[in-house]
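User: Um, any thoughts?
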Amino acid sequence: MSPYQYHPLDTKERSPWSSPSESSSELPMPGAGLAKERPRFATRRLLYLFVVLEAALLVLACIGGVYLVRLHLTGTLYAVPDYTAQEVRDAGWMRPLAILDTPSSQLPPPNSHSSSSSSSAATGQVEMFNLSSHPATASSLHLLVLTPLANSAKNLPRLFAHLDSFKHPRVNTSLGFLVGDEEDSTGVDLRELVEARKHEYRKISILAHNSGLELPRGEGRHLRSVQRNRRSLLGKARSVLLMSTLQGDHDWVLWLDSDVSEVPPTLFEDLLRLGNTGVGIEPTSHDYDPEFNDIVSPNICMRREGKISGYDMNNWIETPESLKKKAKMSQDQLLVEGGPSRFDTKRTHLTELRVPPNASWDDSGLLAKSNLYDPKSDAYVGRRVQLDGVGGVATLVRAQAHRLGAVFPGWIVDHQLETEGFAVIARQLGARIVGLPNYVVVHG
């Protein structure tokens, strides 16, 4: 028996580093007579190893970014300047009045990150966050918009046009991008667009993550045969982007794909209010429910020849038939929405629940009446349904749900991967997920 193992019959409390000769119940091992000399040499060896490791870590820290290189990540962080109240007003931003009216000498100093490419924060910085307290008004919330990119150069101008049109104050908006396995000019174009805005947004983070895998592009990415590898890769990319950018002062995370073509400028505020998140909604409102929601998804559709039709089938609701089907499946079997009828998952999709609104226009061409805004109508824009699965085209997530462990798994969780696997984990953590069947975001 090794002298470092605990024996259940030992009645004498013994240090795990004591020699066998100190126990009368065991025979001494060879060399036991030198036991009293060993601790001194062992201590020296441990001390020498500790010094070597400390020196190695110091060298790595001085090089800077070596850890990011190993993970195929590079970061560029920009800090918002110390705006004056007048500059904020002139820019049209709605910074909270409590801050606008605060003397500049009492405002917190801006982050000390360098505006040049850097992977390390300034030393001596202490940040404190109260994760149990958040602003009560939408404009006061710190929003983090995250977008994974892959060969997305052609989509970037339109994406930034959407971002620039958002009504949420840019001083309370941070952006995060992950560029992966690019074969075009996505990285170069992204840096140019960011450079022109680096003093407008609260923080902009750019990361590169190369998987080394070759997957089909274009329509080929929807083939069922590639879904396991593709969705696993996307899940890992989303998690890397999330873990590299989420900070303690973020209140909400908006996942926004680069290929959305029609997005309302009030997307964030609309999802907060219509999604019944507890922000921007009064208890007397028709949309109010005392059970607040944590994840909100609009209905992701596409426009073909002027007509709206469903697109994203990852927003779905389990049915008794789908649960029966899952019960017969092996644990490592992946469920994928869409495709031939033999692969039907028997679920109800958010795209199927949309009720097109009726509308009438006056003589000047302006909308005169529509049941889209009638709370009693099935076409009401604020109609909500509970979801079991969720996509990531334009999905709003309470930051605390991510902090509690809701990530995008690259492994199968209850037959799902990536965003749908995220929904499984989030629900297991107690998060509530809703979809808005009549609130449409159009995919490109």
In short: DSSP finds eleven helices and 15 strands in the chain. The radius of gyration is 28 Å. The CA atoms of residues 381 and 439 lie 5 Å apart. The chain has a mean pLDDT of 74.
